[in-house]
User: Which sequence fits this backbone?
């Protein structure tokens, strides 16, 4: 078992949120990448879209998701999926941090996963 801790002092400010990538790491062969993100009170991520599929898992606090002209509340325990090329952002209108975990993937990541998997199982 290997635990990858969140180290707030190592978080980078990216796209309006503090973030620490926790995936990938060498011991884990996964077909996805991920990042712990914190949106400060009154803050927001920049609106963006990309070719990857993505889910957000709300961990603590409350925020608003703004995507393609639709605004929806997003709170701890909620999960949202964004298909590729869907513009989206997170807005924290509360007075406490909003924390979420983001996971994204695409076909290239899946192919690299399969290549590593084949190599690992051939060595076993």
Assistant:
């Amino acid at each position: 078992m290997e635990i990858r801790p969140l180290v707030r002092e190592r978080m980078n400010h990216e796209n309006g949120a503090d973030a620490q990538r926790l995936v990938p790491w060498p011991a884990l062969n996964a077909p996805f990448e991920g990042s712990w993100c914190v949106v400060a009170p009154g803050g927001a991520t920049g609106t963006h879209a990309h070719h990857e599929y993505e889910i957000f898992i709300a961990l603590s606090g409350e925020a608003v998701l703004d995507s393609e002209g639709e605004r929806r509340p997003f709170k701890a325990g909620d999960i949202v999926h964004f298909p590729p090329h869907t513009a989206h952002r997170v807005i924290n209108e509360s007075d406490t941090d909003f924390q979420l975990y983001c996971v994204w993937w695409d076909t290239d990541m899946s192919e690299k996963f399969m290549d590593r998997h084949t190599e690992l199982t051939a060595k076993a």
